[in-house]
Specification:
Elastase, domain 1, 3 domains, binds zinc ion, 4-stranded mixed beta sheet, 395 residues, two-stranded antiparallel ribbon, alpha/beta
Amino acid sequence: MKTLFSTIIILLQFSSVYSAEIKKRAVVRDDNFNAKIEEVALPNLTSDNSYEGKFFKIVNGKNNNAIRFDDSEDLQLKAATTYYHINKARKFFTDVVKSKYVQDLPQIIVRVDLINVFNEVGHFANENLDPQFNNALTIPAGNGYGPKNVKPWGMEVWFRPSKEINIKDFKGAVDLVSVKGSLKDFRNQSHMVNFQTYITDLLQGTATGANNLRLVESSIMIEAIYQSSDLAAEFFSRKIYRLDAALVPEIIYHEFSHAALSDHLELSHSTPVNEGLADYFAGKIANSKKLAMKIKDYNLFNGKQVKKKQQYQMAFERGEYANTDFVFGLLWNVGETVGTDIETNFIYRMTWGLSTNVSIRDDLINATLLTCKDVCKSPLNDRIKLYKLYYSKNL
Ligand SMILES: [Zn+2]
């Protein structure tokens, strides 16, 4: 009787996950890392008519109801793509690095097509205030604010709608001040990469096509976008920039990585270390040989194809460098130094010793050396290899 009773309890617990397999069209990568739209099975759904699951609920803008299977094709493509890839990212953190923190996270709301700036007190700032496009971010939970009828909210992932920006707007050939102004605005709107370098190079470049773009010192996001040849025309062209962040798997992985690491690294602001870590895990979740090869060749830290390899500079500690790929390149190399069979666990374990606002030169480097004592296969030799790596970069 007791066994039957427990069986019923277990059945009740599991019955909340919808059992029939539901397939929807989503953006995925093929073996060559090109983006394509394909039917995929959506895991862990708890609804048979909307994008709500055990771990994530995909909503439109400020709405709190899940996007439905009878909503527009465009909206559903964003819902299905974010739902599919964010579940994949979660599975990486629960199954590969065995994160207890991620295992225990409550359901996360994922908002697509949201233009509001985040407000720590009010959740959403007024939409007239600096509407946001072409990027993504992960926000911390908040207590709400009774007098203004703002309810408490949990950690959320936000994707902005895309908006075309004509490259002409950055050129401002006659007025240098406006070029600088435009670049700054552009970069503030573009959370993921050092777009200043990107755009500057783009404007000065003479050759056309992806080959030219690839020569830019790249971080994973921009690399991912270059490589997605078929959709790239939509994301980037010589004249127009627009980015539908909800349709780029690596951006979805990057954002979930922030959520997964938020037990030690707060979500309140971007730092070079937390952005580098989110890029690192996004690269590992993507699990693409082609992407890994490109990162190896083109990372600013020691990429084979990068003409001017980057030495460490004090300036890299500053938040304004959060989107350059120095830390990302460094972590990728640390991983290869300690061994590709343990690298992911190594980097994850290392995050336990970090906190928000850690420095690269002292805290991050020390955390790798300490972690190596516990995790490396030959702690002494591997630490010597790490010291050599850091020395070569003026660290
Ligand atoms: Zn980020």
